[in-house]
Design a protein that fits this description.
The chain is an alpha/beta fold and 277 residues long. It is built from eight helices and 15 strands. The radius of gyration is 18 Å and the shape is globular. The structure holds flavin-adenine dinucleotide (FAD) and FE2/S2 (inorganic) cluster. FE2/S2 (inorganic) cluster binds next to loops.
Length: 277
């Protein structure tokens, strides 16, 4: 019987320092058969294993069509992520996955798309935006909205500049506080909402970030007539097994690793506004 906890081996083929404490690792599985069979959907995550230290859940940010390439953008916050931060091109790391359910890309086709992220929570939606960019004709008007605490927290400037050039696309950025040269909105990301253009009867809302922010977004979208089944969010909890076995990420009757991390609002509504969950 194969062991689901046994990681595959991946080589770091490139390491990009995005900002202090935040870096992207471009990985390739070392085994050719595993390389050929590995596929993922936007919104899924891998468990990355630093030998002798431990494992962490990290979203996949590359486009699923980029075969044999698996990108992860990681913020060094603790033991494992600080250890991974020390690795360089050519080093090896363990990888299990992909896990979880991704964003509803097929259901979102032919509709407007509203992608809202707060804080540093952009990682799970980067692969969505790349996915839509490569298949632009399949989706309606695209709104990309990102809010950060300080303008210096804003990473991926080049990507946002590139996305702004996409057809029928609106990019709105906000920082609670910013350097004098910050050309975008100063204030809460929610203050940008009145500028959004979308058909509330034909839209898919995709969001990730702090749960407080997501609650405000959900309320605003419901008030604008968006259906509970058309609002999707990515939930984050500490993870252990990643495969619905250990109960570490339990969320009511669901496991975030197995049943999420992407949920529709209709799925999480009973618990989403309850403190302590
Ligand atoms: C589905 C999923 C996808 C994720 N994707 C990414 C990603 O793309 N990039 C990324 O940098 N991180 C991501 N994370 C978070 C990442 O898993 C944690 O930052 C990591 O587990 C921290 O491990 P550590 O040993 O470095 O820190 P620890 O020593 O475990 O903790 C350091 C600090 O971080 C806090 N912390 C630990 N885990 C989490 C968590 N899951 N959420 C909030 N706070 C936490 C701890 O409470 C502590 O304050 C994701 C988490 C999940 C569940
Ligand atoms: S991490 Fe073990 S059940 Fe989700």
């Amino acid at each position: 019987m194969s062991n689901p906890y046994l990681p595959m081996e991946a080589e770091i083929i490139e390491r990009i320092q995005e900002s202090p404490g935040l870096f992207t690792l471009r990985l390739r599985l070392t085994d050719t058969a595993q390389q050929n069979s590995y596929t993922f959907k936007p919104g899924q995550f891998n468990m990355l294993y630093l030998h002798g230290v431990g494992e962490v859940a990290i979203s996949i940010v590359s486009d699923p069509q980029e075969l044999h390439i698996i990108d992860h953008t990681i913020r060094a916050v603790g033991r494992v992520t600080h250890g991974i931060e020390q690795l360089n091109s050519g080093d090896r790391i363990g990888l299990r996955g992909p896990y979880g359910k991704g964003w509803p890309m097929a259901r979102a086709e032919q509709k407007d798309l509203l992608i809202i992220t707060g804080g540093l929570g952009c990682a799970p939606v980067v692969s969505v935006i790349e996915y839509v960019a490569r298949r632009r004709e399949r989706f309606g008007h695209l709104n990309i909205v990102q809010g950060v605490k300080h303008s210096s927290d804003f990473i991926w400037r080049e990507r946002y500049d590139k996305w702004r050039e996409l057809a029928d696309t609106q990019v709105l950025l906000a920082a609670d506080a910013g350097e004098p040269i910050w050309p975008w909105h100063i204030g809460r990301v929610t203050e940008l909402f009145e500028r959004l253009r979308f058909n509330s009867q034909k839209v898919t809302v995709i969001m990730c970030g702090p749960e407080g922010m997501m609650r405000v977004v959900v309320k605003n979208m419901l008030e604008r007539g968006v259906g509970e089944d058309d609002i999707y969010l990515s939930m984050e909890r500490n993870m252990h097994c990643g495969i619905g076995q250990c109960g570490h990420c339990q969320y009511g009757d669901k496991f975030i690793c197995r049943d999420g991390p992407v949920f529709s609002y209709a799925q999480v509504k009973p618990l989403f506004n309850v403190k302590g969950f």
